[in-house]
Amino acid sequence: MKASKHSPRALLCSVLLSIPLFGQAETVNWTNWLTGQISKHPDVMAATEQAAARDADAEASEQPLYNPELSVGADRNGSDNNFVAGLSQTIDWSDQQGALKDKAKLIRLSAEADLNEAVLAQTSESLFALVEWRAATRAEEIAESQQHRLDALLEQVEQRQQAGDLGSTDAELLFLSLSQQLSELAQAKAAVDQAQARVRELLPDWRPQDGGIPGHIWPALASRVDNDNLLDHPSIAAARARWQVLRSEAEVVSRRAAASPTVGLSGGRDGGENLVGLTFSIPLNVRNNYRAEIQAANRRSLEAEARFQALYRKQQYDLAGAELPGSDTTPNFVDGQNSPRGVYSEVLICLRSSGRSATSPPLSISRRWASARRA
Questions:
Q1: Domains by residue range for the chain, with CATH
Q2: Lowest mean pLDDT: which of 91-100, 165-174, 250-259, 299-308?
Q3: Of the four listed, 156, 198, 272, 274, which is most buried by Cβ atoms within 10 Å?
């Protein structure tokens, strides 16, 4: 299916709405809002246009390789008017078009994989930015609460100091603690401002009153990744698709190096006599046999294959490390709304979005999105 016929918002929204737990109205509203914000981001818009351009490139590769050529000539020799007309056609002797059609299919797969990777990255960054903002606001609330307690304690200290029940040293220690707490509060407020700016950059219509990620979203998006479906991860699928495209390009270059003959037929009049001619020409690849171009294309294919294997190997070991005993950091969604552990768990979930662990909510979005596109 051509990437240009689908917008990220429509595809991603159809995926999110297909998750069983998304029957709740508030979940549907939030996911619709999130997909709309992601589709508005310039990075996703650029990736969509790039996919459309590559889809057009694939369509161009499927077109006939050579057009026929028409030639016409005329001259006058004494009282005779001479003319000749000819038609010639280059023959795709090595079936370059067949290789180009195979390459076009792989270009479309590569474009889809790159678009999925861009959407996954944007979704991951957006969710992580929301988690960072939520953690920053909670840290600010804790700092403000501690400041209020210190203020109340300071009033008691002043009263006891006036009554002579407390020495100046104890009061100075309390003043020092209060000044440190004020500094921490200022840092917490600055962190909130930075987190808000980051979220607004990624989600243009977001406002602080919209809050963070609803708690019921996380159980619905939880997924397990293993070696059987690791190749479906967008980053690995994109690397694999790039390798396959370059491998097909090497085949195209190899076939292009073969000489393609041209056959022509001409007719006319010369000196009052009818003239019919047949021409045949073929390039002589003597001075340049295009061996260097073929070698360069093969080397690029081998490079892409090695990069794909390296990425796949890295993800395999990251996955194995995440499944070791004691590495399970699956969040407790029951207390995820009201405890610091919930914030920490959400941060871990977002860190997993790049495929570095076994559970990856943004990855489940991308995987279901790809399934919807293939359907």
A1: 3-374 (1.20.1600.10)
A2: 165-174
A3: 198
